[in-house]
Amino acid sequence: MKKTFMGPRIQRLREDLGLSQAELARRLGLSASYLNQIERNQRPLTVAVLVRINATLGIDVQMFSEEEEARLVADLREALGENGGEEAIPLGDIKSLATNMPRIGRALVALHRRSQAAEERLAAMATPPGAPGGFPPMRRPMPYEEVRDFFYHRHNYVAELDEAAEQMVEQEGLKPGTMEIGLERLLRDRHGVTVAWAETEATSVNRSYDSDRRVLSLSRVLSSGQRAFQLATQLAFLDQAPLIDRLTECPQLPGPDSRALARIGLANYFAGAVLLPYTRFLAAAEGLAYDIDLLGLRFGVGFETVCHRLSTLQRAEARGVPFFFVRVDRAGNISKRQSATDFHFSRVGGTCPLWNVYEAFTHPGRIVTQMAAMPDGRTYLWIARTVDHSRTGFGTPGKTFAIGLGCDLRHAGKLIYARGLDLAHPEAAIPIGAGCKVCERPSCPQRAFPPLGRTVRIDEHHSAFDPYPAR
Questions:
Q1: Lowest mean pLDDT among 3-12, 15-24, 127-136, 264-273
Q2: Helices marked H in 316-458 — which ranges?
Q3: Among 138, 225, 125, 123, CA closest to 183
Q4: Do the beta carbons of residue 412 and residue 426 sit within 8 Å?
Q5: What is the number of domains present in the chain?
Q6: How far apart are CA 60 and CA 460, in angstroms?
Q7: Which terminus of the chain, N or C, has less C-beta within 10 A?
């Protein structure tokens, strides 16, 4: 196991609690000299000490995870990469800031985002109404972005809803793969809701609830698993309303639109946790080496639903592989992105064209794998496959997405998709980046934008393969 040194974090925790070294050592059952060595990074932070911290102080051990630090590093690289200075800040300095002074790091990220918003407001005020060209209009984060950040900061795991869903499944004797009848019964017995089919097949509405008549209408084109998901979603709105209301009353969701979207996201989360109850699903995932198709068959759901659920398995006492999940279209737009760990999805400059989620479109319905290396040296295993969403009837337009599921290479050995890959030689990985504007790779022929914080070398006497050579 890799040694983990978290001395400054232990010291901050102790100071926040108003404890001396001797008092904290006494509470943890350690010698004062041993704790002193941990705080000075002369000894690593062991699992045994982490367990004592959690049991004695009630502190979430996630604050000591390397993934949490890597998330901050990614945000800082983006924020400091846009500082407008001539000198790029070395990655080592950014990592040192994230490790030793994470509060200052988070404050810098927050200041950067507020600065961006202020610049957009000033640009809007400086542009005469109706003037052609000029600056873009003022823009605050969209509600969808605020909701994404809400789930991102929770590591894509909502313990309260997850546990409530699993408890309901156990108490009601619901069986994964055959839940539709049981969920319809619960809606009828608990809330007097009648489930009916939509009157016509030609509708884009999957679920419609008439609260006055207490009738839930479902689309006729839904599969059994999709119908169960919609039933569980409606049950979440009715059964878990107080909990969902409490979760959405937070500063991260400042407006009514973002809170409404978050309510839908949380209800969908509850539905996924019902159809794929945590303990059973995690045991099945590990037993089947995370084979997504086999998991879908066992639980009666589709590829995308399995992938999304895999990205949420972060219960403290029983963690699964920490995955990151994305859904993209052919144009590169990310319509869903969830990360249980540290992989950073850039807010600017798009995603990397070398990423295998785009290759998936050239092999419809087939899983493609990729060992990918980020500029900071971390290596990942990515799998991707297309999924189709369509309606019945000739000439009816459908939609196709690529689903991507990735994890750190150190977890790849648990996945069936790593078979045949040379995990012992990560240098064979494809170099990708979080997005062109924040990618530090000095020469990439696929670069679409010059890197932020770097000056582009412009020389009329030379032509290079790299479209934006940096100085």
A1: 127-136
A2: 356-359
A3: 225
A4: no
A5: 3
A6: 57
A7: N
